[in-house]
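Example complex used in Figure S2.
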Amino acid sequence: QSVLTQPPSVSAAPGQRVTISCSGSSSNIGNNYVSWYQQLPGTAPKLLIYENNKRPSGIPDRFSGSKSGTSATLGITGLQTGDEADYYCGTWDNSLSAGVFGGGTKLTVL
Amino acid sequence: EVQLVESGGGLVQPGGSLRLSCAASGFTFSSSWMSWVRQAPGKGLEWVANIKQDGSEQYYVDSVKGRFTISRDNAKNSVYLQMNSLRAEDTAVYFCAKGGGYGSAKWGQGTLVTVSS
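Predicted assembly (227 residues):
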């Protein structure tokens, strides 16, 4: 059972928009920055979003992040088949004094 | 270019020990938190531990406290994970990451640790 809760899977058609939610608490998301990762099979995670809504250099603006209270959301527009991957949210938990990740969401582009 | 190269993984029996290493280059190692994150086969990411720039602070996930120790050698630009009393549930790919681990932009390719008799 992960500290951060994500839906196991989401799906949408090419060109459409999808959102992935990440729910936590005041000890983690509520008081810390949230990051989002994309992981393709057999590869290391790739940072998509940091500090809730910032994109590292090279990440297209099709990817966006937001946070409200104890929840965060990753948005992906203009879906491409290459976006099929697992997506994870992560943050620090002040009560646990540990980093925490969501359980991951598998994105299928139909 | 930032590079992180893990080594030291392998097959170990339950109750055994293993030491993972991560060699860093391309950035000022002594100025960066460093961390370890693992991923069991077919499972999600699990943050394991991180260590402050000067090694004065370390944090661990509850499941490894008392068994794993993270350390660093800034002269060698390396971070380590000493794993003792290994269990089957510690079987995973272990990634080294620059930064706290939960918001890190740079990761190594990972090293596989298999705990089995």
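DSSP finds no helices and eleven strands in chain B. Chain B has a mean pLDDT of 96.
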